[in-house]
Amino acid sequence: LPPATTTNTIFIGTNPFYIVDPATPDEEEQQHLFDSVDARRNDGAEPAAILLTHHHADHVGAVTALSRRYQLPVRAHALCYDRIPPGFLPGEPLADGDRLELGTAPDGSDDWHLRVIETPGHASDHLCFQESRYQATVVGDMLSTLSTIVIDPPDGHLRTYLDSLQRLLEHDITTLYPAHGMPHPKGNTLIKSYLAHRKVREQQLIAALTNAPQTMHDILPTVYPEIPETIYPIALRSLLAGLTKLAEDGVAAESDRGWRLARQGLTQ
Question: Which of 42, 49, 92, 210 has the fewest C-beta atoms lying within 10 Å of its C-beta?
Answer without folding.
Answer: 42
